[in-house]
Amino acid sequence: MKIDNTIAAIVTGGASGLGRATAKALADSGVKVAVFDISEEAGQAFAQEIGGTFCNVNIMDEESVEAGFAKAREAHGQERIVVHCAVVAGGGKTVSFDKKTGAFKRTPTEQIAKSAEGIFTASYRVASIAALGMANAEPVNEDGERGCIIFTSSAASQDGQIGQVAYGGGKGAVNAMVLPMARDLMDLGIRVNAILPGTFATPPMLRVKEMNEAVFEGLGKAVPFPKRLGNPEEFASLAVEISRNTYINGQCIRIDGAIRMPPK
Question: Which UniProt keywords apply (predicted)?
Answer without folding.
Answer: Oxidoreductase
